[in-house]
Design brief:
The protein is an alpha/beta fold. Helices cover about 40% and strands about 20% of the residues.
């Protein structure tokens, strides 16, 4: 591979010392190799029982035709399997890599219920689509007859990209506005490369560019144009910004140096993988190498952080979560992977304060934590955590990563759009039937409506909102024609 001193893993975007690389070799290559497991794809697909009620498809937000393309794969008809998989999803190889299949399709596999282990649906999905790319079966976007109408999409994440593709197929001119310098949103900057290689995202984006979709990168709505300005440029608008505001921790010492946001940490790691200049990584602020790392949170973002810290060569990695394992929102598969890699989970615990010392007393040195216990169920049905009088404890920490999830930014203020209705959580309010916001001709989809959710739901929302936008524009075009 490389020389004797260093190794670089495909898809991780990181270079590791030989010792650390040797420790991670099995896990990294298992994750990457699973995506190209040619001998196993037909074998796994052949395990599908073709049951009368396809629970796997029912529990897939996209309602993919899973048993059908598993059968085609088992028969060696990979191109047909890909075409069927692609018919309901604009990003099947991405969903195959990052969907929490243990909570969705695979977790509802009849064979799993029988105790024989689920069909590895995600691995088969990414295999057949990767094969399609390699064999040239992935066709260009079929652009429909020009409609003479244009759409502005705010946000180049999964919801915006999915909607843009469907709208372009219908013949609309599509412009995507995004504040980042690369498209993909959290697919590009939030998810680590060892889970989702960045070329997989970029080739999807390039396919949309080749179809004539115009990307305006580094474009901030509110700074470069107001929402009103974009409404004047386009016949309709889609807000698909996602949610990026980090949930705060209220505890003494939270402002100490070394207490950082999860997205800042993951973005720095991904940018470094792209070869970008990242001063905060290079000066050690957002690099876990040699540090005692504590990650606070229990979702998929927290899992991304702990596993990234391990790969960066952290001295130790602990995950502090206020509930127990059974009530953790993140994927159990991710938890198991993290444990295999040496991450220690400190269940039923929450930070009480952050200790610091050094220049001005501002460098974090530890986390004072308190024990928790599960009380009565909250409004969602989950047992609410409460303080356990059993006492507190302390953890050594040179780097604390806050990964408590994300909330909506104040879009009416950012977009200079006072008429844009939002919920009490700050998410954009939409009509349940049409997905239109309080502003005529302005639609919204994805996490900015749902709150922080799964990529597969964002793709589903992008597919659905494209149909609603098409119906609205067609009705307006018909009305204009009659008036003329």
């Amino acid at each position: 591979m490389a020389d004797d001193a260093m190794l670089k893993f495909v898809g991780t975007g990181q270079v590791y010392p030989e010792k650390r690389a040797a420790e991670l070799r099995a896990e990294d290559f298992r994750e990457i190799a699973d995506r190209y497991a040619i001998p196993d794809a037909e074998e796994q697909s052949g395990r599908c029982s073709q049951c009368g009620v396809p629970y796997c498809s029912v529990h897939c937000p996209l309602h993919n035709h899973i048993p059908d393309w598993l059968r085609l794969t088992a028969e060696g008809r990979l191109r047909e399997a890909y075409q069927l998989s692609n018919s309901t999803s604009t990003m099947p190889e991405i969903c195959g890599r990052i969907c929490p299949q243990d909570r969705l399709c695979e977790g509802n596999c009849v064979i799993e219920f029988s105790g024989h282990g689920a069909v590895t649906i995600g691995s088969v999905e990414k295999f057949i689509t990767d094969t399609a790319w390699e064999q040239g079966w992935v066709e260009p976007v079929h652009v429909g007859r020009p409609k003479g109408q244009s759409v502005g999409v705010i946000g180049a994440g999964p919801a915006g990209l999915a909607a843009a593709e469907y709208l372009r197929e219908m013949g609309y001119d599509v412009h995507i506005y995004d504040r980042h310098d690369r498209s993909g949103g959290l697919l590009t900057y939030g998810i680590p490369g060892f889970k989702l290689e960045k070329y997989v995202v970029q080739r999807r984006v390039e396919r949309l560019e080749e179809a004539g979709i115009v990307f305006h990168r580094g474009f901030e709505v509110g700074r470069d144009a107001t929402l009103g300005d974009l409404r004047a440029r386009h016949d309709t608008i889609l807000i698909a910004t996602g949610v990026y505001k980090a949930r705060a921790i209220k505890a003494p010492g939270v402002g100490a140096a070394g207490v950082v946001e999860a997205l800042d940490y993951l973005t720095a790691s991904n940018r470094k993988g792209f070869g970008d200049a990242v001063p905060e990584f290079d000066d050690g602020s957002l690099d876990a190498e040699g540090k005692h790392v504590v990650v606070v949170g229990g979702g998929d973002t927290a899992m991304d952080c702990v596993r990234t810290a391990v790969r960066q060569g952290a001295a130790s990695v602990k995950c502090l979560y206020r509930r127990d394992r059974a009530n953790m929102p993140g994927s159990q598969r991710e938890v198991a992977n993290a444990e295999e890699e040496g991450v220690e989970f400190v269940w039923l615990s929450a930070p009480e304060a952050f200790d610091s010392e050094g220049n001005g007393g501002d460098a974090v040195t530890g986390v004072r934590a308190t024990r928790m216990r599960l009380g009565a169920p909250d409004a969602s049905g989950r047992r609410a955590p409460e303080l356990d009088p059993g006492g507190g404890f302390q953890l050594q920490a040179d780097l604390v990563i806050k990964a408590l999830g994300f909330e909506a930014e104040d879009l009416p203020r950012l977009f200079n759009a006072d008429g844009l209705g939002v919920t009490r959580w700050g998410t954009v309010r939409t009509d349940g039937k049409t997905m239109m916001t309080s502003l005529d001709g302005v639609f919204a989809a994805g996490d900015i409506v749902r709150g922080a959710s799964l990529v597969v739901w964002a793709i589903r929302d992008g597919r659905d909102v494209a149909a609603h936008m098409h119906a609205w524009m067609r009705a307006h075009a018909d009305a204009s024609a009659q008036a003329a």
